[in-house]
Amino acid sequence: MQDQGNSSLKRRLQIVELARKTDEVRVEALSVLFGVSTVTIRNDLHYLEQQGYVVRAFGKARYNPALLKTAAEIPGAPAAAQGPAQAQVAQGALGWIEDDASVFLGSGRITHRVLPLLASRQGIALTLHDLAMVATARQFLDCAIHVTGGTLAGDEPGLIGPGAEAGLRARPLDICLFEICGIDDRNRLLCRDPGAARLYSAAVEHSTKAVALALDLDSTTGGHPVCDIAQIDGLCTHQDMEPGAFDLLAHHRLQATRKAEGRIEFART
């Protein structure tokens, strides 16, 4: 999805929202609604399907039902435990977000769960790069919502690339929150997707504060570097941690400040 005056981005975002709110969207109807050709609409739906936002059928599409699940499956974890674990970490993330804050939320199952919780905050401004999260934010929140712009590519969960990074830097950010999958042997936080990792790295540099979220801190998990541990201000994770992780975080002046309801929160001292 190229950033061409944001017209194609806005149209595709609206298509996702329409698909979520209705049983289905039809190519001909969308063509009339947006004043573009049916070929353009089919291209839009093709890209959105590739990214997992819609499921296409002949001449129509519907919102991907997998995005409506409240507890998405985490590989290797028992299904019954996944939802509560994500919710616990999301609740910890909420504590970092103050009223009137300008916030960037990265893509992910935990960050998606943060969105409804933000209804308790006043005057926030959200910057997002995941179109599915934009739809959720509009459903639950009455606040300013900015979309980074950028490109949909490959298996990436959201908009990425130079356009997304420029859109992210277009506004001041008080805090960014993003999900990580592990820590490498060079003490760098890792993200599963390379494009998202580059975007989150830009967010860390641009934001006043940066907070990482994780269900575990597996030091052997493969991934793509976002930033050094020393660059974040806080971390919220599930209580099941490798013993060495505490020492590693403490070495980088991240001390456990709270342990409650199945999560551990760390803050820079």
Automatic annotation (TrEMBL):
Keywords, in A-Z order: Transcription, Transcription regulation
Start and end residues of each HTH deoR-type domain: 8-63
One Pfam match: HTH_DeoR
InterPro entries referenced in this protein's UniProt entry, alphabetically: Carb_Metab_HTH_regulators (IPR050313), DeoR-like_C (IPR014036), DeoR_HTH (IPR001034), NagB/RpiA_transferase-like (IPR037171), WH-like_DNA-bd_sf (IPR036388), WH_DNA-bd_sf (IPR036390)
SUPFAM superfamilies assigned: NagB/RpiA/CoA transferase-like, Winged helix' DNA-binding domain
Molecular function terms from GO: DNA-binding transcription factor activity
Name of the protein: Transcriptional regulator, DeoR family
Organism: Delftia acidovorans (strain DSM 14801 / SPH-1)
